[in-house]
Specification:
By secondary structure, the chain is mainly beta. It contains 1 helix and 14 strands. Strand 9 and strand 10 form a beta hairpin. It is globular. The termini are far apart.
């Protein structure tokens, strides 16, 4: 008779079989980030210390009355395409990136995500997805529980720019939460940047970025930069892994949605 292990036992067995990697993962031929100490995706950049989040912290946060519910387990009317709906009121990455029909600028965002158990995978190949604010500024989604990758590419990193202050990842197969407060960049009439985007992020209820200025739009193996733009959709990334999302809601802040909120461009 085939025995099916409960998820907790399966994860524990996985942990025992696959100890954390200690060697550097990443690159040594990419440009240096401003300040000159670390390269983009630097293989030698120290990874954040691990902090175990509180049980259930950040999960099940109901949207406030003025929030726009983007996904509550019932359909894809708020999105430009459909993913796969799965049991428990979640959607699973399938068939390309998904974008909100509505554009946003300054906002408060809550969402919950779950990485699959992928014992045979490692680094960026393990539970990879991403949350793109204004369609271009990424907070990384990744299974970073006992999974070494480059520091600015692990879960909750501002991808390619700054690692989270701590690694608050739960094991794969468990639900995780992001609570994000985002201030859009501002541009002058001539398109020049007058104020960078700023982000604060809580991962599973743990503060991992506190009012951090962004260096520009997300890129891989290159330095970020800004190009003038106005409000834009929220984008969730299909990186080829069956990551799941649920309880996605957003609150526009400070008149966001009006073109002047991001420089009128």
């Amino acid at each position: 008779m085939k025995t099916v292990l409960p998820l907790a036992l399966a994860v524990a067995a996985l942990a025992a079989a696959a100890p954390a990697q200690e060697h550097g993962v990443g690159y040594d031929d990419t440009p240096f980030l401003p300040g000159g100490r670390w390269r983009v995706h630097d293989k030698d950049r120290p990874v954040p210390p691990v902090v175990t989040p509180g049980a259930g912290a950040g999960l099940g946060t109901a949207p406030p009355a003025d929030a726009i519910v983007l996904y509550d387990g019932h359909g894809f009317a708020a999105w430009d395409k459909e993913w796969r709906e799965v049991e428990g009121g979640a959607m699973e990455v399938r068939g390309g990136d998904i974008r909100s029909r509505r554009a946003f600028a300054d906002c408060q965002l809550h969402l919950e995500w779950r990485a699959p158990v992928m014992a045979e995978r490692s680094s960026q190949g393990k539970g990879n997805s991403g949350v793109f604010l204004m369609d271009r500024y990424e907070i990384q989604v990744l299974d970073s529980w006992r999974n070494r990758t480059y520091a600015d590419g692990q879960a909750a990193a501002i991808y390619g720019q700054k690692p989270p202050d701590v690694n608050a990842c739960r094991p794969p197969g468990e639900w995780q939460s992001y609570d994000i407060v985002f201030t859009a960049p501002r541009f002058a009439a001539d398109g020049s940047l007058t104020a960078p985007a700023v982000v604060t992020v809580f991962h599973n209820g743990v503060l991992v970025h506190d009012h951090v200025p962004l260096l520009g739009a997300t890129v891989h193996r290159a330095l970020p930069s800004y190009q003038a733009h106005g409000p834009a959709p929220l984008r969730l990334q299909d990186h080829g892994d069956p990551v799941q999302y649920r309880n996605v809601w957003i609150r526009p802040l400070g008149g966001a949605g009006a073109p002047e909120a991001a420089g009128g461009r």
